[in-house]
C-alpha cells in the first residue's frame, strides 16, 4: 500500500469561504469571547506533591536494642496526639489531607509501618498483627518515654486492626480514644479469598511516578487526586534492573498474615476499654442497622416483598440477639427474609401459582451472599447460630437466590435506619406509597 500524502488533501487546498461579518459589539463576536484556559497535561495533573505543605516535619525513630528505624510525619504543637496507622500497601502520607486540618487543634503523628514508606526493619516482610502492635508500642515508648500524652489511635484497614489490638493490650494507659476507618471483620474476612487476584490484576510496573498516580486514581484504588499525588510516591521504589517503578511493599508475599489482621476483630474492638468510633466510607455493609439500638445494641432487621408491582409483606423488627459484626446482623436479617419467602411460595402454591424459579432476595452486603453460597466461609463465622444456616439450604435447593444490590437501591433501608431527604422520598415512591386528598366523609 502506497503511503498517503496528507499534505495534498483537497480540503486543505481549497480556499476557505469568507467569514460572516460580526458586529464587534456583539457578545458573540470572536473578540468578546475570553480565551479558554490552558488544560493541564496528564503528567502535570498527577505530579507528586510535597508533604511539607501538610505536615510540619518528619523524623526517624530508631528503636533501642534493634536495627529497626521507623519514619514518622508530625504536625501540630499542642493538644492530644492523634496517632495514625495506614492500611496495607500505603504509608503515613495517606493521612496528609487530614493532618492539615487536625493540626489546628491537636498534634498528629503518621507512622510508616514496617515494610512501608521510609521505615526500615530487620524483617520488612513480617506483617503479623503481633509484630505490628509491638512496633507501635516501641515507637510510642521511644518518642514519649514513660509519660506519654493523651493518645487517640486512628487506623485504616490493616492499620485499623493494629490500632484495635494496641488498645486492647492496655499497655499504654494514656490511650484516650480509638477510631477505626473502613474495616469490618465480616466483610474483610470474606474479601481475603479474592485478595491475591485483586493484587495480581493491578498494574505492577510504572515508567514514571506520574503514571503510577494516574493509575491509582483511574483504577479506583484512590478517589482523591490530591491525596494520590501525596501518598502514592511513597508506596513505590525504583527497580534498577527493570528500569521502572514497582511497589515498595510486596503484599502478595504476606498472605499468611492476612487472616490474623481481621479474625476476631469485632470482639476485640468491642472489648477495648476506651471511647471508640467506627467510620465507614459507605453504608452498604450496614443494611441491617448493626447495633443500632442504644439500649441493648441489638440490630434491626427489615424487609419488603413485592408481588407483581405492589408491596404485599413488610417488616421492621429488632433482632432477638446481639450480633458481633455487620455481616452477622445481615445474615440474621436475611434468615427472616428466607423464612418469609418460603411461606409466601407455599401460599402461592395453594393459589395454584407455583414458583418454578428461585425467589430473588436483594441484599446489599456481599459478605452475607458469600457466606450463603460458599461453605468455606462458615468456619470463620461460628458465632452465628446454626439456625441461620437455613439460608444455605434454601439457596442450594433453589428456593431463593441472593442477589447483590447497591445501598442506593435498597428500599428496605427505610425500615431499618434514618434516611436522607432524597432517599426517603425515592424509596417511599418505590414502595408505592401515594398521597390521597381528603374528599369529605362518606355521608357527604
TrEMBL record:
It comes from Iris pallida. It comes from the Eukaryota. Residues 1-35 are annotated as: Disordered. Residues 82-295 form the AB hydrolase-1 domain. Residues 7-31 have a biased composition (Low complexity). It holds the Pfam family Abhydrolase_6. Its EC number is 3.1.1.89. CDD domains: RNase_HI_RT_Ty1. InterPro entries: AB_hydrolase_1, AB_hydrolase_fold, PPase_methylesterase_euk. Belongs to the AB hydrolase superfamily. One of its GO terms (molecular function) is protein methylesterase activity. Keywords: Hydrolase, Serine esterase. The keyword Hydrolase applies. The keyword Hydrolase applies. This is protein phosphatase methylesterase-1.
